[in-house]
Queue: 2 jobs
Job 1
Amino acid sequence: MLTIPKRKTKGEVGPKDHGRKMSLKDFEFAKTEEGYHYELSRGYITVSQVAKLYHALIIAALRDHLGAYRLAHTDVIFAILGAAECKLLIPDWESERHPDIAIYLAKPKGPKDDTVWRRWFPDLAIEVVSERSVDRDYIEKREEYFTLGIKEYWIVDAKREQIVVLRRGKSDWIEKRLGPDNTVTTKLLSGFKLPFQTILDAAAQADVDSE
């Protein structure tokens, strides 16, 4: 049976639009072709494939730990959202980001419509570094998330065997780099502990499953 490719409707963004210049105003409610991940990176559309197993299993391990904490501390975390469930609008940089994990401690204020993302920001954002996201995660998002007022930003990089924990200071991030022998903690989540080995185990499982 002949399959006819679905045509992109007017105003829809697709994989061929990677690198296309667009304003945040136009991108915010643009329709996107399914099957891809879209962000606006400083005025230019970034299109990437759905997460590979390696990336996905690390995110899953992080969410498992955070989810277990939330169940035990229902009064601390309001929501744990993923890249397909939230967006961060950053007008100063003409960017729209979709963090791998976003932790919201408080409920959103104001109308709960499509404009909620203009005023509801996570307290903690986490990005898992992939081969193509190094500059975005280490440089661009580091600057943008500080501008947005996020309290903490974690850069999880299993390939380099490090987690960069950025805590908000008066004028810049206060940086701490953790390695395989360390455990991640945060003042935002009292009692939360994430052994770095958890990340390495998840990455190793992806390698085993791909054999």
Note: The mean pLDDT is 92.
Job 2
Amino acid sequence: MRIDHIHFYVEDAPRYRDWFVRCMGFQPVAGGRTNPHTHTEVVRSGQVEFVLSSPLCSTSPVAQFLSLHPPGVANLAFGVWDLDRVMEEVVAKGAKVREAIQFLEFPQGCLKWSKIAGEAGIDHTLIERKGVTPLLPTLDNWVEQMAVAENPEISFAGIDHVVLNVASGDLQQTVSWYEDVLGFQRQQSFSIQTQQSALSSQVMVHPVSGVQLPVNEPASDNSQIQEFLDANQGAGIQHIALSAPQIAQITQKLRNAGLSFLEVPDTYYTQLQQRHPELQLSQAEWEEIIQAQILVDCQEASSQLSHYPPLLLQIFTQPIFSQPTFFFELIERRSQAKGFGEGNFRALFEAMEREQLKRASL
């Protein structure tokens, strides 16, 4: 089970298509598609594909979503090898089916899909692909356009992880659902507490594909997770992490394009070098990382043969919508770094607290 694509519901799909192109280096593919109630756009960067839909009338499912929530992720689609078997298993485990299995043939392949309701308000489309197929059944010219829709300046290697926020007390129930129904397994868990607020997190990983799904719940009334839940009017996807080779260079290009990132205080890098003297970065690399304001986490080497410790390099954007809800993360993993580092987790938490203080919500 791998991430196939991610579907955003927004007020104006063409406007956000243009934003992704202008500010994040994505390319539009397949053109716009309209049915009687919904307009849909697709953008792509490297191995990452996002679908953007906006309502044309009140009967659109997008309009219904936006009447309850601000713009954000409505559907996290997973690719599977055998949809019939997977659906039989998930239904037996109690999954609610929103859309029964459907099937379409194309000149170069066939596409089979179904949709289930997730535990925390996010739907999951399950997709089986054979041969060459369009991203969605209605995007008949997507295959031709995707071959030329590349930006040589900015390209993401894939989706590293997707983070889900749930209400206080719902963490274990949500984790159990992904464990029982979709076969994810528990990995790391975190409890982060500062002088201001706190959260709890459980990282879920799919054992076959390695798809990572951290699930967070607030552990204090003024937690940034609670602020998200209040603004989002319920549980939802907080952020998507994009794999970014050469993260510092990509970050600078995105900044130049107008993308805004969370600020990192200068003291962070002084403390980082004191905490991790084993970091083997050249002076030029340090200067590049500090200038780009990249977070760095050093992990213990999994093998004594490795001369370089595994590193996690991460940076986080400001929320991309008007509400303090959804944002992006860029992440680069070096020397086979796995999972998540508590140092960067805490640094993100503290950076978001500083943004809460600016909004007077902490």
Note: The chain has two domains: 2-146, 158-358.
